[in-house]
Amino acid sequence: MTEVITENKQVTVVKSGNEMAAVAAKQINYHVMGFYPITPSTQIAETVDEMKANGEHDIKMIPGDGEHGAAGICYGAATGGGRVFNATSANGLLYSLEQLPVQSGTRFPMVLNVVTRSFSGPLDIKGDHSDLMTTLNMGWIILLAKDPQRGYDMNIIAVKIGEQEKVRLPVIVSSDGFFTSHQKRRVQYFENKETVQGFIGPFKAGNHALDAAHPVTIGPYMNEPDLINNKKQLSLAMAAAYEALPGIFEEYGKLSGRKYSMVETFELEDAEAALFILNSSFDTAKEAVIRLRKEGKKVGLLAANVLRPWPYHELISACKNLRALCVADRQDSFSGQGGNMTLELKATLQDDPQNRTRVFSRIYGLGGKDFYVGDAVALLNEALEVAVSGRVKNRYDYLGASSGDLNYQAESMLEPIPQAKSGLPENFNLVKDETTGITKVKGVNLRELTGMPKRVVSGHRACPGCGIFPNLNLFLKGISGNVVVLFQTGCAMVVTTGFPLTSFRVTYIHNLFQNGAATLSGLVEMFQEKKRRGEIPVDDDFTFIMVTGDGGQDIGMGPTIGTALRNHKMIILEYDNGGYMNTGYQMSFTTPFAAKTTTSHIGPAQHGKNFFHKDTAQIIAATNIPYVCTVAECNPLDYVKKAAKAQKYSSERGLVYVKAISACPLNWGDNPRLERRVIQAGVDCCFFPLYEVEEGITNITYDPEKLKKKTPVGDWLKMMGRTRHLIEPEYAQELEMFQDEVDRRWERLKARHEHSLL
Amino acid sequence: MSDLPVRDEYGFYEIRLESIGGLGANLAGKILAEAGILNLGFNGSSFSSYGSEKRGSPVKAFIRFCDSDCEVRINSPVTEPHLIAVFQENLKQILPVLMGMNDKTRVVVNTARTAPAARDFLEMPGGTLYCVDALKISREEKVKLNTTILGAVCRASGFLAKEALEQAISDTLGKKYAWLVPANLKAFNRGFEEVEILEVPDDGKYPFQPFRESPPRWGYGNAPIGGTITEIASTLRNDLSASREGLLPFFIRDNCTDCTLCESTCPDYCYVWREVEKDGRKTMVNTGINYQYCKGCLRCVDICPSQAIEARNESEVDTKKLSRVSIW
Fold it and tell me: What string of DSSP letters covers A231-299?
């Protein structure tokens, strides 16, 4: 083994923090990566998946149904006694948060990359440390990676420290979202993965779940007086990590030439005033120190490279001679007089009776607001003032917040839609045929409906040719009266409501995309209850519509099923473009089989997505709600009629579920001008059949077979870059499996159509 | 060995690419960084302004170069670039694309205009202008815009060796799209050669715009709490014409049968319908396109069954004159 380690040559490349984390993961060759895409950490899973398709590693990649599921996958894998990896950000981290103390409390090491991002709401995809600081109390080791090089190095160090015999704790490696995760820099990595493997050593499992000779109980029920002892063990493990880390940094330094320390300083030795600032901003602030030093000002910088275990003694020692310290926190512990770093530093320095450092807090860079050299200069100058005066005038404040233009008068572009104009034409009616059980819709005239005011207006920022907006347009044409919409996170939400503008002319609510159905059920019930109490006029009415992508219906399937079983009077409209398009096309459960996505690459070692598309409409139909239907923009009249039925059922009976196929030219890899044809082909090949399930009775509303228009799925798949490879000879087997599955589902659907009891 | 022609106080030569999503500015930034760092021996960095990452939305890419032994420390955007490349000239109408430039800055712009006309269109105060018709070249070579513009950027830089960029283009595209390399190299070379250069006189015709962050109108002092937006339908203020990539739909009323298929397919709700009396009955008729919102996807061109909508080059259509105002 030593022979291999001496061959630790490094190569120089230009890569981002996310890419370097992926390179490290590949070389570590984790057993399992459980993940769920969320900006800005998604690229890690994408890059690891691409390497997998090229046969560069053996990591088993498992896409969760959400971050909570991904964390569960990771925990389960870790209990099996192997190396496990994950990456997440912001609300993804928060959604999985309850799993973090499970992982640490039962002492199964793994590595989680937290690519920092502000947590919602309002939803912001840029980097701050609000997500990271929620992990301080989770019992995980936390290493920081301030630049892409450390994105690689710390990921390797993480494995080594977490797996130490006396430690055995999970480890977070955290880099700044976008600033580090997406910035390409000159970086180095070991040419041979054996160098990395040699450094981390073979995995030594503790008690684990896959040893038939030694059955164990993992995660028992534990109250007092025992839990406190479990936590004491964890605290001792963290102390052991504190002891072990300097040696590991030393060892890694010898191997790589890059030696890290618990605490990092810059020009601090003789400094009178200093700035404590974490991760990427630390580097930016160095330029401010250089500038001020040229002016003869004694300023310096301080940062921690490790947050847990907390570098207590190092920080006390670093601040020994400081007269003033500005702690810049990229998050706030609202009204706690600072962010978490301020609080911890103040508490730490309090323990040193000799210390005379005056500490004050500045909250900066929230939501990814850029941090310029000038900002650092301002903070250091403030610290100098405190050093000179010995007094903190302003102990806690925000840097870079603006009060706004107080003279600005808001002006709406439009008035709310007048009630008289918001409906379907007078001759429109719905009549239920009692023999078939199917309601017929009459009097819908699409030309007349062009005069109906739009509830969602122009000026949104969707990609050219986006399918979401034709879907919204057609659906809302069938809806009369007042509407409240709730959009789950996704493209439709992001492109319509970039603050301070909105494309909505009706009331709109956003909630994160696992929880829209539950949220809207709450609103519906509030409406009913206020009406019952006489707090809302009896004549007032709303149609409540939740709009979601297929991604939202992966992570949000649970709350959707709950909403369906409770049968609230509302509509769910799902626009299904077969992927997580808002984050750059990761596979969703509805992505076509064998399609290529950024988390199901095609290559010699992998043939795209490896399971069939989810049949959401049938899953929902099984909850026995009053009305389920599928719609497509290529059949506009059918679309509007189904929308009208949806409104009727949601106002009279309960939950309605509408599923639309929705084009995404950017990620389907086709020409936006041809999308209507692509949608038509998807319907004609029966991948996306048009039908409804009305009070349990299935009715196919467009039968391509009867019309002699049914085509092989290949005719549709070849129209899109994401699936074009399926018509190549090497994919013949996948194509056949795909065709068989589509035909099988179609035959079953026809049987349901024929028999009202099915 | 190349040397940087000029450095700022931190030792950087800085480039800013002004583009819309989908034209490949991010990749161009990556190629520039790789050429400079791996092939020419500089140190540096490359990153983009990330937002919702939609095609057609404004995006910036930043590239920094410094000497090999200089540390890259700054993580904030490029504010005073030595070189600016404008991938989509219409961006000028919605964004201050030349902000932070000075009389030494070199500006590359993708335009079909002559250099003096482009100078006026951009309201460029000074510096040197490099005009390249990248849309035409890239269409002829059947490649994305970015490599053509890289050719002009290479020329304008004066220090990035052509071979280094050619190498970086080959390395980047070659991994997955080897068959696209020759056409892209040709486009790159045409971008390098087919530039019209104009030394813009510092004649005071247009003022230099120093970099500044514009404070939002809504702040903590006046914004409704919780981020709630109380002005409805306000994206109607947006002008999305910069999202178009050269083509747009042209409406021919005489051929139109008011079938509504265009209205059903348009993602940007651009078709303007009006109520008229026809044979004593009120009916809706299609009056044409609101070009303020049209992103040029051409869905309507493909769907129209009666040849009432054609695809035309944007430069051949007077969008201001023909644009219809939507009635909401």
Answer: HHHHHHHHHHHHHHHHHHHHHHHHHHS----SEEEES-TT-SEEEE--THHHHHHHHHHHHHHHTT--E
Query: How far is residue A549's CA from residue A224's CA, in Å, rounded to a whole number?
Result: 45
Restricting to A residues 240-299, those with a Cβ less than 8 Å away from any Cβ of B are: 280-281, 283-284, 286-287, 291
Among candidates B22, B48, B261 on the partner chain, residue whose Cβ is nearest the Cβ of A182: B48
CATH annotation of B235-322: 3.30.70.20
From CA B326, how far away is CA B312, in angstroms rounded?
22
Please write the tens of the pLDDT for every residue from B73-105: 999 999 999 999 999 999 999 999 999 999 999
Helices (H), A540-590: 552-555, 557-566
- B 244-303 → A contacts, CB under 8 A: 244-245, 258-261, 263-271, 273, 275, 283-284, 286, 290, 292-293, 295-299, 301-303
Question: Chain B 39-58, CB below 8 Å of chain A: which residues?
Answer: 43-48, 50-57
Residue B7 has which token pair? 């450095």
- B13-199: which CATH number, 3.40.50.1000, 3.40.50.2300, 3.40.30.10, 3.40.920.10? 3.40.920.10
Cis peptide bond prior to B36, omega within 30° of 0: no
Q: What is the DSSP string of B189-225?
A: HHHHHS-EEEE----SSS------PPPPSB-TTTSPG
CB neighbour burial string for B150-160, b if at least 16 within 10 angstroms, e if fewer: bbbbbbbbeeb
pLDDT higher than 90, residue A411 = no
Instruction: Among A287, A506, A582, select the one facing B73 at the smallest CB separation.
Output: A287
Say what the pTM is. Answer: 0.96
Q: What is the pLDDT of residue A6?
A: 52
Contacts of A529 (CB under 8 A, 6+ apart): none
Give CA–CA dist A449/A474, Å, rounded: 10
Residues 6+ apart with CB under 8 A from A382: A326, A360, A362
Q: Which residues pair with B277 in a beta bridge?
A: B282
Q: Which domains does chain A carry?
A: 2-206+223-256 (3.40.50.970), 265-398 (3.40.50.920), 455-754 (3.40.50.970)
Inter-chain residue contact B45 with A183, CB threshold 8 Å: yes
Query: Which residues share a beta bridge with A634?
Result: none
Distance, CA of B69 to CA of B26 (rounded, Å): 26
Q: Where are the domains of chain B?
A: 13-199, 235-322
ipTM: 0.95
Q: Coil, strand or helix: which one is B62?
A: strand
Six token digits for residue A363 = 């909250």
Work out whether the CA dihedral B7, B10, B11, B12 comes out positive or negative: negative
How big is the CA angle at A536 (ends A531 and A539), to the nearest 5 degrees? 85
Under 8 Å between Cβ of A473 and B264: yes
Asked if B237 is an interface residue toward chain A (Cβ–Cβ < 8 A), one would say yes
Per-residue burial over A256-283, b = 16 or more CB atoms within 10 Å of its CB, e = otherwise = beeebbbbbbbbbeebbbbbbbbbbbbb
Quote helix, strand, coil % in chain A, to nearest 5. 40, 20, 40
pLDDT in tens, A356-395: 999 999 999 999 999 999 999 999 999 999 999 999 999 9
Q: B13-199 and B235-322: same fold?
A: no
Burial of B176 (0-12, 13-18, 19+ CB in 10 A): exposed
Q: Rounded CA gap, A538 and A528, in Å?
A: 10
Taking CA–CA distances from B175, the nearest residue in chain A reads A54
For residues B306 and B312, give the distance between their C-alpha atoms in angstroms, rounded to a whole number: 17
Q: How far apart are CA B57 and CA A463, in angstroms?
A: 8
Crossing angle (nearest 10°) for helices A280-294 and A373-389: 60
